[in-house]
């Protein structure tokens, strides 16, 4: 009963957050968590969203102390980056599961997540339509000059092109680097140049600065994406869906490419979304 009352008290009083237009940053006081908060602060200005830091604890007795410490962190964020995040505390023994549940519950515009080695990170990404920015280091002053978009023109790509146009609205000065197989050696080889030319005209009409990068491999593997994304400020990728597999196979096969991308040695931030993600719901 005491536990229930404490949880009710904190959900009602400490966690009184309006959930629309929200960027969520899971926060555990680690150096990388502070860097994730910095990413979130910069992006909250560009995306015109409020910033919330989420702390997860197993010990409900620590919540008053944690709320006070998080308050200091919020003030520090305000002093350093001009954004004061709201504070949210949730109970749980498995942070990656709590993060996933909160993302589903609140449906934030974005979750900025420090990488947890790949396995738990991809577990969080699965099963939610929320886009996740996975980071391994500090932001480059919030500057976005080069954004990589792996797109496979051998498959349906209309929705992915809409993502490119959408991101151009937030970062109009950035160059969108479209990484795609050339189709060489496939039945669609003759159509690819036409598709790329048409895409260039569409992007030009939308005011998008586009750089098309083609390669002769069958698909966009993690290795190719990372090699062609060197110097990029962000990689934006759609998560490969493996929900048709059994739970056992899904655990080990789902997101193999994404695991390699989000743990890249160049520490490029990777924004992941799935087919259900609707960026259009982000209000500007």
Give short descriptive properties of this protein.
Rossmann fold; 2 domains; alpha/beta; 10 strands; disordered C terminus; 10 helices; 284 residues; 20% strand; ten-stranded mixed beta sheet; 41% helix
Brief summary of the model shown:
By secondary structure, the protein is an alpha/beta fold. The chain contains ten helices and ten strands.
Order of strands, main sheet, comes to 3-2-1-4-5-10-9-6-7-8
What is the CATH architecture assignment of the largest domain? 3-Layer(aba) Sandwich
Give the CATH H-level superfamily of the largest domain.
Answer: HUPs
Instruction: Tell me about the largest β-sheet.
Output: 10 strands, mixed
Classify the beta-strand content into a percent band.
15-25%
One letter per element, helices H and strands E, the order comes to: HEHEHEHEHEEHEHEHEHHE
Instruction: Output the radius of gyration.
Output: 20 Å
- The CATH C-level class name of the largest domain: Alpha Beta
Uncertain regions spanning at least 5 consecutive residues: 1-20, 242-254, 280-284
Explain the overall architecture.
The protein has helices at residues 2-14, 31-47, 63-81, 95-106, 119-125, 158-170, 191-205, 222-228, 247-253, 256-262; strands spanning 22-26, 50-57, 86-91, 110-114, 132-135, 146-150, 175-181, 209-215, 234-238, 270-273. The chain has ten helices and ten strands. It has two domains: 2-135, HUPs (Rossmann fold, 3-Layer(aba) Sandwich); 144-232, Rossmann fold (3-Layer(aba) Sandwich). The N and C termini lie far apart (43 Å). Helices cover 41% and strands 20% of the residues. The protein is elongated. It has a ten-stranded mixed beta sheet, sandwiched between helices. The chain has 284 residues and is of the alpha/beta class.
